[in-house]
Specification:
- The structure holds 2 protein chains of 2 kinds.
- Chain A contains 14 helices and 11 strands.
- By secondary structure, chain A is an alpha/beta fold.
- In chain A, the strands form 2 sheets. In chain A, strands 1, 2, 3, 4, 7, 8, 9, 10 and 11 form a 9-stranded mixed sheet that branches.
- In chain A, strand 5 and strand 6 form a beta hairpin.
- The N and C termini of chain A lie far apart (66 Å).
- In chain B, helix 5 packs parallel to helix 8.
- Chain B has 2 domains: 67 residues, no CATH class; 219 residues, Orthogonal Bundle (MetI-like fold), CATH 1.10.3720.10.
- The longest helix of chain B is centred in the N-terminal third of the chain and has 37 residues.
- In chain B, strands 2-1-3 form a 3-stranded antiparallel sheet.
- Chain B is mainly alpha-helical.
- The chains are: A alpha/beta, B mainly alpha.
- At the A-B interface, helix 1, helix 2, strand 2 and helix 9 of A face loops of B.
Chain lengths: 323, 350
């Protein structure tokens, strides 16, 4: 009895040791960090990549664009790539270079910010100036910057509906917030209002959709994929008379559109075939093309011209001529 | 002056009624939450399948082309939602007509979703499962148990039985009691700074998660173990000492066996808390998309509550039912752990 118990204990111990050794020897998968807007796309590609090549599924982390770039630029051994919803700034590029990180930039597609509302309400069209008046803390009034006095949509324009302004949008930690700030230029500084008309939701866009569905007067700000998945329950506002659609976001006429990027480390890209294979899968027409599987998920594809250029670059990379 | 007997009885009745009402309220809220989760979550245990000889690739899941040999193939999330709840989603009227046609020919069916239990995370709601999360939770809890149990029980034994009563030990005791009430996210911060930045352990691994949760459960284990130890009767110890046993013998032959049910209950309940914990794990960055279950404690790992968190943030409608389904499984696991705690207490008490 005692002997038996001892044997079991030894067995358990051996198993434990084995698991440690096993995990130490296992091939570490590719790692990508960055924007939560690109995360669903990168993860979808990761799965297809796994099924096609039988490599371990790459690890995708949604850390947010800024934090992702920091991790990416810290050292050449860190994450293999970073997903961003804006190009790298000059200071970030410098930081990367200082730390010996060589990278390549790939534009993957477009994304748009959509103002949504429960589809039982009557739709009205917003202009960028309306949004400036609805969102910013200080606005220009008779050549002077004053505290935002607008409480009600009707205050902004006479033909707007008569209910209070309530906009549920991203929090300052997300890249979506940066785009909102950047695209809707405030004439009196970029800070959004803090009197309760703009409500920051933590990085959970489903929550914004749920709130918009439950409370008909709340207007939410979400990325296009969330609107796309809930099309039959929500409607979207036109901004500056342009309706957010695949076409208008793709060609950039919709004012609140932004590009999505993948930056990938070019250190050892030639020797690291899995990293290259993942990149090839991500940029293949089957993924980001007009009828690719990422389109299903709400990614808005590049224009024909851009796709052609991207393909050419990938062809060159495949041959390993230029790095 | 003492109020009349009638008044005092009236007061008693009112007190009883107030208690009953508050109990009813609590049950009502619990019932609402459970009913909502069950109502939303039970469809996750079933999935729509289409006979593979039909050949409408549009209706199949996006990974169907990689494994084609099976007679029934999992349908895409749009078809699944329509078939289960009549939710049209992005389907065109023509496609709906085609699905109805398939239904007439018995080439579409609803079957038990074994995938939900045996597959790991996926971006496709119809293919996603909780196996990876369960394995990750198990490994993480194992590390938590290995670190927190011996340390916690040892600390409690020393403090209760051996430590001198002076200012220092009082100070340590007060701090442990305070630590037991510290919000869990602070332990996440500690784990981030100490295990990841200082010790350089691999980031989304069961080792770091388990150590962080171990830190979190340590004070709770110490407190409950001390309560259990101090509830052992003094006469028992004195009798053993009087018969010539050493302090250590008294401890291991009499005090610990008598206190064991209390200790085990405390440990299991704190493990149950660790099982359902998300905040510190988010802090140490265990929010990655991980589609392969971990095979060791250093592998990238996700745990069940974090997976629920991740699913709840996904745009696809199919993840709503998956989220609730996974919550149900988590609740069942927590209930099992609590049952074990009750069982152990009942077993050893007699």
């Amino acid at each position: 009895m005692v002997k038996n118990r001892k044997r079991y204990r030894n067995l358990a111990f051996l198993l434990f040791i084995y698991s440690i050794i096993h995990s130490a020897c296992a091939v570490s998968p590719l790692r990508f960090v960055g924007s939560s807007a690109v995360f669903p796309f990168a993860a979808t590609v990761a799965e297809h990549f796994h099924y096609k090549t039988h490599e371990p599924t790459p690890l995708i982390e949604a850390t947010g664009t800024g934090a992702g770039i920091k991790l990416f630029c810290k050292d050449p051994g860190g994450p293999d790539g970073v997903m961003t919803s804006r190009p790298l700034t000059e200071s970030e590029q410098k930081k990367c270079q200082e730390n010996g990180v060589v990278f390549k930039e790939f534009k993957l597609g477009q994304d748009g910010l959509v103002f949504i509302q429960n589809n039982q309400e009557e739709l009205f069209s917003l202009s960028l100036k309306n949004l400036d008046h609805a969102l910013h803390e200080k606005i220009l009034y008779q050549e002077k910057c004053i505290e935002n006095p607008y409480k009600n949509w009707r205050d902004i324009q006479d033909d707007f509906p008569p209910y209070p302004i309530q906009i549920l949008g991203p929090a300052p930690t997300s890249g979506t917030y940066d785009v909102l700030i950047e695209k809707i230029m405030g004439s009196c500084g970029p800070s959004l209002r803090r009197d309760g008309a703009y409500i920051e939701a933590p990085a959970n866009e489903n929550l914004i959709v749920q709130k918009a569905l439950l409370a008909p007067h709340i207007i939410g700000v979400v990325t296009f994929s969330f609107y796309d998945q809930n099309r039959n329950r929500l409607h979207a506002f036109s901004v500056g008379d342009v309706f957010p659609s695949f076409e208008s976001i793709q060609d950039g006429t919709y004012p609140l559109s932004r590009p999505l990027y993948l930056y990938i480390k070019a250190n050892n890209l030639k020797n690291d075939s899995t990293r290259l294979a993942y990149l090839i899968e991500f940029t293949s027409p089957a993924a980001i093309g007009e009828k690719g599987y990422l389109n299903e998920k709400g990614l808005i594809p590049l224009t024909q011209q851009e796709q052609k250029e991207l393909n050419n670059r990938i062809q060159v990379l495949k041959k390993g001529e230029e790095l | 002056m003492i109020p009349s007997l009638k008044m005092r009885h009236l007061k008693e009745r009112w007190f009883k009624r107030a208690g009953l009402i508050s109990l009813c309220f609590a049950l009502l809220f619990l019932g609402c939450v459970l009913a909502d989760i069950i109502y939303k979550g039970y469809p996750a245990f079933f999935r729509t399948e289409i006979a593979s000889n039909v050949g409408y690739s549009l209706f199949l899941n996006p990974h169907a082309s990689y494994h084609t040999e099976k007679p029934w193939v999992v349908a895409s999330d749009d078809v699944d939602l329509y078939f289960k709840s009549g939710h049209k989603g992005k389907l065109t009227p023509k496609q709906i007509q085609m699905i109805k046609e398939l239904e007439r020919q018995n080439q579409i069916r609803l079957s038990f979703n074994t995938n939900f239990f045996l597959a790991s995370d996926s971006r496709e709601p119809e293919l996603a499962g909780i196996w990876g999360g369960i394995i990750g939770s198990f490994l993480t809890l194992l590390i938590t148990f290995i670190t927190a149990f011996p340390l916690g029980v040892g600390t409690a034994l020393y403090l209760e039985e051996f430590a001198p009563r002076n200012r220092l030990t009082h100070w340590v005791e007060a701090n442990i009691n305070n630590l037991a009430a510290v919000p869990s996210i602070l332990f996440g911060l500690l784990g981030l700074v100490f295990f990841i930045h200082f010790m350089g352990l691999p980031r989304p691994s069961a080792l770091v998660g388990g150590l962080t949760l171990g830190l979190m459960s340590l004070p709770v284990i110490v407190v409950t173990t001390r309560v259990a130890l101090s509830s052992v009767q003094q006469t028992l110890k004195e009798a053993a000492l009087g018969l010539g046993a050493t302090h250590l013998q008294v401890l291991f032959h009499h005090v610990i066996p008598a206190a064991l049910p209390g200790i085990m209950t405390g440990v299991i309940l704190s493990l149950a808390r660790a099982l359902g914990e998300t905040a510190p794990l988010l802090m140490i960055g265990m929010v990655a998309f991980i589609a392969t279950p971990p095979s060791g404690i250093l592998d990238p790992t996700t745990v069940l509550p974090v997976q629920i968190f991740n699913w709840s943030r996904s745009p696809e409608l199919g993840f709503v039912e998956n989220t609730s389904g996974a919550i149900l499984i988590l609740l069942v696991m927590l209930m099992l752990l609590n049952c074990i705690a009750v069982f152990i207490r009942k077993r050893f008490e007699t």
